[in-house]
Amino acid sequence: MQEEYNPDIITLSDDEGHEFSFEVLDAVETDQGRYLALLPVYEKPEDMVEDSGELVVLKVFEENGEEYYEEIEDDDEYDTVADIFVDRLQDAFEIEEE
């Protein structure tokens, strides 16, 4: 029997309080920290068609037992982590490298 697919969906808020939903595609831990590769989730199909299809890569950190996510500011750190995710996900998704 085939297992039912249940995506791991998280909702994040920006500084203005706008909420965005993402599917967690992969997670990786390196010497620099833990990271998530996310894909935006849309309620309306037309929004999905208009999306660029780019992965969102965030760094995970904990504070007082709570998990938080932040953008990766350092270009070298981002490139290293993004390359890891591309290598891991390119067989499952059509990923075009720039």
Describe this structure in words.
- The chain is of the alpha+beta class.
- It is 21% helix and 41% strand.
- It has a five-stranded antiparallel sheet with strand order 1-2-3-4-5, with helices on one face.
SS field, number of helical segments: 2
Parts with pLDDT < 50 across at least 5 consecutive residues: none
- Report the mean per-residue pLDDT as an integer: 84
- Count of DSSP strands: 5
Main beta sheet strand tally, sense and closure: 5 strands, antiparallel
Structural category is alpha+beta
Distance between the amino and carboxyl termini = 39 Å
Name the helicity range: 10-25%
Report strand order across the widest sheet: 1-2-3-4-5
The gyration radius over C-alpha positions equals: 15 Å
- Assign an overall shape: globular
Helix and strand pattern: EEEHEEH
Strand content: 35-45%
